[in-house]
Design a protein that fits this description.
This protein is an alpha/beta fold and 336 residues long. It has helices at residues 28-31, 51-59, 70-85, 108-124, 150-163, 198-207, 225-229, 257-265, 273-290, 306-315, and strands at 63-65, 97-103, 131-134, 170-176, 179-180, 183-188, 192-196, 213-218, 234-238, 299-302. The chain is built from ten helices and ten strands. It starts with 27 loop residues before the first helix and ends in a 21-residue tail after the last helix.
Length: 336
């Protein structure tokens, strides 16, 4: 994915009815799927920061939200509240996986990727009832979900920390967006802006006591999350090394290269996480070579204690693979 444009360094609907008046049929416009917001004006605040200040504010969780109406915010509050309330409790004696899939950019490709990633990971890791997807409109008529934002991610992680057994259960976190050298970019149209830096994500997880975690980051420069999150209890997979871009982030795509290779192909199969990570890296390398692109070099780390809870989850994994969905990311090379 190209470095994010702005970082140069860096419930209910109200229906009125009147007796004896026939209902008005919906117009063609009303029948259209809700479309992702369009990126337009430059972001406030972040654009003028020095690199050092950008790092400092990102590590501190700075986020800008503006021009949102109270009614819209109430609707959004209800969406996230329903999602948090629906989380099932953990099962004593069972290594439960709590799955979070988040699209931090509002372009439809990220929303579509996050939605399907949530389904694939929930199926693989027995996360039914314990999965939350945060993503804006997908442009295809998908269900309205809470938007992906740093603030919503923090709320979800805090709620999961309350309901899970932190000594027994596991967080599976998938994030997809544009990336910058200092972290994963949050951009919701012209209304929401921010960065989740590796230090910020590590601080959130550690502060909540979520030690057993599989974190997958699909974004440019995402390899910077590996050193920040790697320890014996953790597994970390990223779309690239820390100083290279990844590919496939065009808004009309269904998948990024890494998301397609890992989620849509490798993790649908009956194989271990390390084998899936190796397959995904191989697929990405093949696609990049075909397009004569600089290799992104996806990264993977699996801690020694993480291998134990991964083995427990794999014992309950499906024994039948599922087929990839959507348009393969590599087809964008045919349009060049």
């Amino acid at each position: 994915m190209a470095a994010f444009r702005y970082l140069r360094i860096f419930a209910s609907a109200f229906l009125a009815t009147v007796a004896l008046v026939p209902a008005t049929p919906p117009t063609a416009a009303q029948q259209q799927p809700r479309q992702p917001p369009v990126h337009g004006t430059p972001p406030p605040f972040f654009n003028g920061l020095s690199y050092e200040d950008a790092v400092r504010y990102s590590d501190g969780g700075a986020e800008v939200e503006h021009h949102r109406t109270p009614a819209d915010e109430l609707t959004e509050h209800r969406r996230i509240d329903r999602a948090l309330a629906a989380l099932a409790p953990q099962r004593k004696g069972v290594v439960d996986a709590y799955v979070v899939s988040i699209a931090l950019d509002s372009d439809g490709n990220f929303s579509r990727e996050a939605r399907e990633a949530g389904r694939v990971l929930a199926r693989r890791y027995d996360g039914a009832g314990r999965t939350i997807t945060l993503a804006g409109p997908d442009g295809r008529g998908g269900a309205d979900l809470p938007r992906g934002s740093p603030a919503h991610l923090g709320l979800v992680l805090a709620r999961i920390a309350e309901v899970m057994d932190r000594a027994e259960d596991v967080l599976v976190l998938y994030s997809t967006s544009h990336g910058a050298r200092i972290g994963v970019v949050y951009n919701d149209g012209d209304n929401g802006f921010g960065i989740i830096s590796p230090a910020r994500l590590a601080a959130m997880l550690d502060g909540l006591g979520i030690k057993q975690r599989l974190v997958i980051v699909s974004a440019c420069y995402s390899g910077s999350f590996v050193p920040a999150l790697s320890d014996s209890d953790s597994a970390v997979l990223t779309a690239s090394v820390g100083d290279r871009t990844s590919f496939g982030c065009q808004a009309d795509n269904d998948w990024t290269f890494f998301g397609d290779a890992l989620i849509n192909n490798a993790l649908r199969k009956v194989q271990s996480l390390d084998t899936a990570a190796a397959e995904a890296a191989r697929l990405v390398a093949e696609w990049e070579a075909r397009g004569r692109l600089e290799p992104s070099l996806p990264q993977s780390f699996i801690g020694e204690r993480a291998k134990l809870w991964l083995a427990a989850l794999d014992k309950r994994a499906p024994t039948v693979a599922t087929a990839p969905v959507g348009t393969p990311a590599v087809t964008l090379l045919d349009k060049r």
